[in-house]
């Protein structure tokens, strides 16, 4: 028996899946030096999320905890410093089941070297790995927000942009990294992998064409 506002089974399954997915993301080089955070929705009011400061290459089930959708801890521990950027997505989109955040080389260089507030990925077959995209003849616009240590303010800024329909699958934070979300964790991982590969390709393309 449990008096938790979510099922023990869903929490255990989420912790296992997040630990395995986190190790996979780290192995790709997208979560260096304890950076990044990952979460899975548990139900309408709670999510499982990585604890703050954990080495993602060694991520274990015990490195996951539960929070409510206001970002308050629902189990012991200190949640990710960026918890509000996850719970904001769950609050706004009831159909979303997972959020992944990474700190890749490509996302950092692209947002630091090019000052634009929007990054466009266009014409790539791999765009079809994203939920709802069915042709390479698609244009994905990824907004770029300036980095800040005020995560509550950033979550509010992102939420306003989402309410205006200005963000579809992902956004970037300048000099920081990528956030993306999807209906469940496997879909979110596939989407993240596609986006990170496309960002790396886009960086190469810009270098080669000297833009
Ligand atoms: C060491 S990277 C700085 C913090 C950060 O951007 C991040 O993604 C990890 O923060 P957390 O509190 O989730 O460990
Ligand atoms: Zn971060």
TrEMBL record:
This is Methylthioribulose-1-phosphate dehydratase. Binds 1 zinc ion per subunit. Pathway: Amino-acid biosynthesis; L-methionine biosynthesis via salvage pathway; L-methionine from S-methyl-5-thio-alpha-D-ribose 1-phosphate: step 2/6. Transmembrane segments: none annotated. The keyword Nuclease does not apply. Belongs to the aldolase class II family. MtnB subfamily. GO terms for biological process: L-methionine salvage from methylthioadenosine; monosaccharide metabolic process. It catalyses: 5-(methylsulfanyl)-D-ribulose 1-phosphate = 5-methylsulfanyl-2,3-dioxopentyl phosphate + H2O. Its cofactor is Zn(2+). The gene is mtnB. It comes from Alcanivorax profundi. One of its GO terms (molecular function) is zinc ion binding. Residues 16-203 form the Class II aldolase/adducin N-terminal domain. Its EC number is 4.2.1.109. Catalyzes the dehydration of methylthioribulose-1-phosphate (MTRu-1-P) into 2,3-diketo-5-methylthiopentyl-1-phosphate (DK-MTP-1-P). InterPro entries: Aldolase_II/adducin_N (IPR001303), Aldolase_II/adducin_N_sf (IPR036409), MethylthioRu-1-P_deHdtase_MtnB (IPR017714). Zn(2+) binds at residues 101, 103.
């Amino acid at each position: 028996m449990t008096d938790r506002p979510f099922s023990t089974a869903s929490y255990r399954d989420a912790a296992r899946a997040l630990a395995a997915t986190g190790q996979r993301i780290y192995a790709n080089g997208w979560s260096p030096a304890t950076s990044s955070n990952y979460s899975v929705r548990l139900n309408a009011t709670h999510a499982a999320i990585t604890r703050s400061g954990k080495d993602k290459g060694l991520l274990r089930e015990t490195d996951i905890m539960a929070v409510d959708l206001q970002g308050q801890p629902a189990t012991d521990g200190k949640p990710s410093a960026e918890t509000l950027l996850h719970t904001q997505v769950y609050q706004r989109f009831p159909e979303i089941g997972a959020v992944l955040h990474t700190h890749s080389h490509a996302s950092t260089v692209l947002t630091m070297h090019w000052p634009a507030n929007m990054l466009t990925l266009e014409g790539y077959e791999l765009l079809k790995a994203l939920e709802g995209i069915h042709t390479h003849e698609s244009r994905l616009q990824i907004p770029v927000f300036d980095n800040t240590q005020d995560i509550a303010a950033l979550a509010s800024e992102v939420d306003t942009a989402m309410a205006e329909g200005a963000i579809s699958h992902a956004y970037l934070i300048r000099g920081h990294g990528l956030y993306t979300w999807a209906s469940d964790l496997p879909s979110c991982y596939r989407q993240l992998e596609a986006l990170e590969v496309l960002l790396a390709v886009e960086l190469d393309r810009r270098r080669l064409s000297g833009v």
